[in-house]
Amino acid sequence: METKRSLAYLRAKKKVETLKGFYSHLVVYILVNTGIILVSANVFNSKKIDFTDWSNYVTAFFWGFGLVSHALYVFYVINIENNIFKRWEEKKIKQFLDEDEF
Hints:
single chain, 0% strand
């Protein structure tokens, strides 16, 4: 019983660290791209402020693909893999425990 509990704890800890990594990625994305857009739009200098130029948003657009990929991995792929691997892990653990008993 203790083994199952420790394995469940390790799985939960891995999920939390994965989520933490995604949320860190999201915060950095928001902060950096906000800064890039503001600088590109001339907010901090005496030139005319222009938020309509498409080149202000190129970094945010392409980095957004990476962020969406990361989100899909965290919220979709890991949940599917966990179910498949979880069943396989439990089956193998039970198999090894049964072999050790005999």
